[in-house]
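Lab notebook page, bench 4
Experiment: in silico fold of construct C2
Operator: M.H.
Input chain length: 336 residues
Purpose: comparison with the prior construct
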Amino acid sequence: MKMRLLILLGMLMLNGAFACEPPQTEEISPDGKKVYHNPVVAKSLPDPTIIKAGDGFFYLYATEDTRNTPIYKSKDLVNWEFTGTAFTSATRPTFEPKGGLWAPDINYINGQYVLYYSMSVWGGEWTCGIGIATSDSPSGPFTDQGKLFRSNEIGVQNSIDPFFISEDGRNYLFWGSFRGIYYIELTADGLAILPGAEKKQIAGTAYEGVYILKNEGYYYLFASIGSCCEGVNSTYNTVVGRSDNLFGPYLNKNGQDMMNNRHVSLIKGNDRFVGTGHNSEVVTDDKGKFWFLYHAVDKTNPKGRVLMLDEIQWKDGWPFVNNGTPSLEWEVPVFN
């Protein structure tokens, strides 16, 4: 009997039944502060997107290094638990044959969770595209609603990396990857392009992975530049520009336009972490501090792109992080 139990336990472990992540180790620093250590998840979770649900948990989705789009949840942005995947092998999108599910963007629109996703194969810059899936629960299962558009349909090469935002009761999708950043208006339910809407470009060809934060009267366009996926040789880093209008122009501190690939550096690699990019939504904790998640390559264990957390601070109306590089240790966010 004991041998049968051991065999069953081994089979369950091989099948991933115990694949949840160990808790993040927190400790008290010498100055009495409660701190966490990066990475917050030492597992490949590229291109993270997060949302806070009605149950008080943050839910995170990422590019499918874990197949079928992994979902994690957390109460504090530090300790993450694997809860499953958005799709199964039977329900995953299919509009790009053999395509991977990349760079999702999660939202709550009209009473349902709407997950925009990229679907592509490496080099398939004219056949890749952006699709939509919906669910009544942040933990899924998600039902694929099919493609929103493909590159060859919308006329924008490399149409991946979606980002949804509402402004004055109207919905917009921003997207693009090293072929210009564009936006277009969507319908009220966010599930289709608004009839008659036309795409417009707002940033140049240096960028991908766009996210826009509205704060203190400005719109901040976060984006990633460089190479994402070359292991310890990755040059990915995060940059930012700002505008007083959602639709730009987005400028750097010297008034130069992101349409001309001008920007302000936010975070880049250091001796421990490189390839720092494709940040999530920015979250404000109960002390009013700003936080974002992003991925990086850990030089001490360069397998995939691990999940990082850092505080965004502000000076003269511009965001900055640590000393412009990832933190190794930082005071934990506060969520009551």
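Observations: The two ends are 47 Å apart (CA to CA). The longest helix spans residues 2-14.
Next step: discuss at group meeting.
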